[in-house]
Specification:
By secondary structure, this protein is an alpha/beta fold. It has 8 helices and 13 strands. The strands form 3 sheets. A 6-stranded mixed beta sheet has the order 10-9-8-11-13-12. The protein has a 5-stranded antiparallel beta sheet with strand order 3-2-1-4-5, with no helix packed on it. Strands 6-7 form a two-stranded antiparallel ribbon. Strand 1 (3-11) and strand 2 (14-18) form a beta hairpin. It is globular, with a radius of gyration of 20 Å. The protein starts with a strand and ends with a helix.
């Protein structure tokens, strides 16, 4: 009789897979499961030694690498926490790119400001632009435990993934959460420090699933320095920029690209201070990548 199991981590041709509350076991995968990722649900064969079938996904978080190839990060996600910290310095462009991927899952995006060891610092002014996207930040410290109760409560019962730059403390946050609220120390993630340059070291090399004692799970993901979401069409891009899409309906021309066209409501919102110019700049950068992604898929 087959049993339903969860993929905890993917390692090339192998995967760590667990049934219910059993410890995960590393199994070799048939080549037809080359797309299998952390968070996937599968059926094992009667003896539990092989994956017999991959079950349907609710959603899947993917990116494009530097060669335009599709890379699956994790599947079946409810909430995506974009982690930033004072060091390394946050990248607005990276947040905008993350949001395109998250809002197309769809899943709820949240903003998490880590390394607030003495309590929340004065937030950078540019964060205010994301409030209309329901991205009011939550301030935490993996080192002191500040804000972890609020974070654990928000995560309970959901599948949560942490994404962000290398060195912002994603693995440290997961380790602190699991130590205080979750599972055995033996499953806690490895952590690292910032490199001398200030850029984060890639401590986490593959997405890893950590089940929570109160239901739900955390997924720790490898840190990034850049991120290219999968954008098969302009509709996909617009779902990632709801603040721009909402204003674009008032543009004079239906096919307005918000550049030099007369009667552009998006540029008018920027001139009025209602929309950051950086958001439109990110929109233009990603719109320019759509033809290349279309060719890569073909």
């Amino acid at each position: 009789m087959s049993r339903v199991a969860r993929v905890f981590a993917r390692h090339n041709q192998m995967a760590d897979i667990a049934v219910d509350h059993e410890p995960p076991r590393r199994l070799r995968l048939h080549r037809r499961f080359r797309d299998l990722a952390c968070g996937d649900r599968v059926e094992l064969d009667a003896v539990g030694e092989q994956v017999a079938r991959q079950l349907d996904r609710d959603n899947v978080l993917v990116r494009r690498d530097g060669f335009g190839r599709r890379k699956v990060i994790a599947a079946n996600i409810d909430c995506v926490w974009i982690v930033i910290a004072p060091e390394p310095a946050p990248s607005r462009n990276l947040i905008d790119r993350f949001l395109v991927a998250i809002l197309n899952l769809p899943a709820r995006p949240r903003l998490l400001v880590n390394k607030q060891d003495t309590g929340p610092a004065e937030p950078p002014e540019w964060l205010a632009a994301y409030r209309e996207l329901d991205l009011d930040p939550l301030y935490v410290s993996a080192r002191t435990g500040y804000g972890l109760d609020e974070l654990a409560a928000a995560a309970a019962g959901h599948t949560n993934i942490l994404i962000g730059q290398s060195g912002v403390g994603k693995s440290s946050l997961v380790a602190a959460l699991l130590d205080q609220y979750g599972i055995a120390d033996a499953m806690a993630p490895a952590t690292g420090d910032l490199a001398a340059s200030g850029e984060g070291r890639h401590t986490t090399v593959t997405a890893q699933w950590y089940p929570l004692a109160n239901g739900g799970a955390w997924i720790d993901s490898p840190g990034v320095r850049d991120f290219t979401p999968e954008i098969p069409s302009l509709d996909t891009l617009e779902r990632g920029f709801p603040d721009i899409a909402e204003r674009a309906v008032a543009c004079r021309f239906r096919d307005c690209r918000h550049q030099t066209e007369p009667g552009c409501a998006v540029r008018a919102a920027i001139d009025a201070g209602e929309l950051p110019a950086e958001r439109l700049q990110a929109w233009h950068e990603l719109a320019a990548e759509i033809p290349a992604q279309t060719r890569a898929r073909g």
